[in-house]
Amino acid sequence: MNDTRSDQHEDAEQVSMENRLQRCPLVLDGAKLPSPNTLDGSSGGDTSAPIGKVVQGGEEHTTGATVGDGSTADENSPKEVGGPSNPSSCGAGSMENASDGSEGIPKDLHDLLNESWRMTEAAIQSSDIKKLREAIVFAEKAAARCSAYPVLHSNALDSLGEVHLAMYQESREPEHLKRAVEAQEESVSVCPPNYSDRPCLLGNLASSLSTRFQTSADIKDLDRSIAMSEETLELASPSERPLTLWRLGGSLRTRFENTANMSDLERSVMLLQEAVAPSKLGEDRCASLNNLANSLRTRYLQTRNVGDLNDSIVLRETVLALCSVNNVIHVDRAKYLKNLAVSLTDRFRLGKHNADLDEVVILRIESLILTPPTHVDRSAHLLDLATSIDDRFDLKHDTPDLELCIILREQALGFCPTTHINRHNYLVDLARSFSKRFKRKHDIADLDRAI
Questions:
Q1: Which pLDDT score is estimated for 323?
Q2: Maximum distance among all alpha carbons in the chain?
Q3: What's the start-to-end Cα distance of the chain, in Å?
């Protein structure tokens, strides 16, 4: 990628910008404020994008960490750190497709394994806790019964790990995450070295270890996840290689963020560049490009190489284009909108270009509209939009922007739990906005609120 954009690309970007301005005028005109219905998530007013059915293929994501200026860092889902949106199903998922030592097993074991795999798949797809509990019982029986058949035993243990991991993701009970890792560790240990699905088993274990690292912050889990991914990469077929590169690249970036080892970040970028090289990665292509953009932005923050920042922006724009087909809203669109806004904010802070800031505001609005009032990220999206409006007020000094900023910060505070780790930052930001309004209007009530 080039550090500078061609005139043709700039023209296309300007057209895109104009189209978006026409679709979302409510904040760009300083005299207009969003209606309360729009801000609280209720219906009312035009939205910045048609809301259609949601396609699957992304993963649930956690709120980006709030940084000093009130904006948030790039969002990475738990699975973006160490694996795909859902664990890969190893062993084909049914006895009819099983091989490598499954011949001649008793019929009752054959039926038990088939029923266990069927229940596991259905339970994971349903996300129903009752079905997941039932699937765990069957998966435990299946794993215990087939210990005399190494390949089937390995697959059954991996399936048990998958359903425990799904149960953890729904219940957030740490015991299920612990048991997922234990089952998949045993799966890898009993797996024959030359078994064709060994890379899949290793990859699933890497994903579970990465997920546990996010809850434990134990760097040993992350190191082991990376080691599993390294072994997977050595064994992976050409078709499996892009996903393995994607997983390993994301994990290396995470380790850099925890150890500041620059070699991990450099290798992360290199692996992720290779991961996105194939022309087709199916539903994971958006996630792969987003992952590379995250690593490039992280490297920009370390080196201040503007080329990395511009490349991250181009990649994020590509991701949004790929997940916006036929008016179908991608499940992770809000996250991708937010990530592009983060990179454009970085570039705005470099050169104070109005066009970048205007685009950030539009992206923040659309991301907010796509986030339901009950969503855990609602307060963060409100705060992000308030920060961008505040930036625009500092640039243009339009009083309506300051009024809107205060409204948004108050709503963000209302959605923020009293126990939230960053609640203090919400209060500080709101106090600063009241202080700014006092300096313009000299209303003593604003000064009292600021204090």
A1: 83
A2: 87
A3: 49
